[in-house]
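Student: Please help interpret what follows.
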Amino acid sequence: MRKEIEQAIALLGRKDPKSLDKALELLQGTVFSFSMKVCGQREDAEDTMQEVLVKSLPYLPKFDSPRALLVWLYRVAKNRCLMSRRRSKFAPKHDLSLDQLMPDKLELELLSKEGPATPESQAIRGQQARRLREAVQKLPPQYRIILVLRDMEGLTDDEVAEIAGLKPGNVRVRLHRARLFVRKELAQQDSAPLAARKAAARARKKAATAIPPRPASCKAMFAELSNYLDEQLDDSMCEKLERHLDGCEPCKVFLASLESAIERLRHLPPESLNREGASQLRRELLAKFPSF
């Protein structure tokens, strides 16, 4: 549950103009932040924020549950974002295949040689917010929505499922594949310069025929990595995965790279809202509802 929603509900209960303005300001920030991550375009995010506020204002006094308000706001914003006129030109329209997101044996070997990221390299990559946003925009919309709600907005699986109209199990599947997609994009961006990457790609393609497929035990573990990181595995499966990791350095490094990508998503700084424009919008809306 986002604390801004809880604060907004508390402020709405005071029923005075100053508290109402502050509550709307909190809701503006929440909707704009979500919309920027999903739409990727400031104009679309601002249009979404305005439409959601216009629709929500007459109903706000009826909400006494932060969770109910949260689900309603995100659902309206999600629907508006999906109708955005400026869709990402990068996002593939097909479903993400787990096999396509898994590394081959060569990539695992390279990961093992490179080792886990150092704090210094993490700090450098942490400055590349633009590239992280671009990676998110390359996700198909049905995966992007889940990733943004769960990892970037901090909602629970149940809240995401209710907003997206999915079963929690389907949320977990899409979340894992979205995380793997972003991890793969970031790994490609953070690697060597373009010429070296192309040379490495050619070498991988040439060597692929001679490289055995991933061990079946590794492949089985990959499907459970998000559940492991989110502490959603039962004890027996958790012990099995940890035993595998103890004896498989490439998988251990891959898990660290996935965890790093998730942490970068969770700590991506929000893009700032135009405060003057947002304040003007609140004044115009409240003028239309003088009895609110």
Observations:
- The two ends are 26 Å apart (CA to CA).
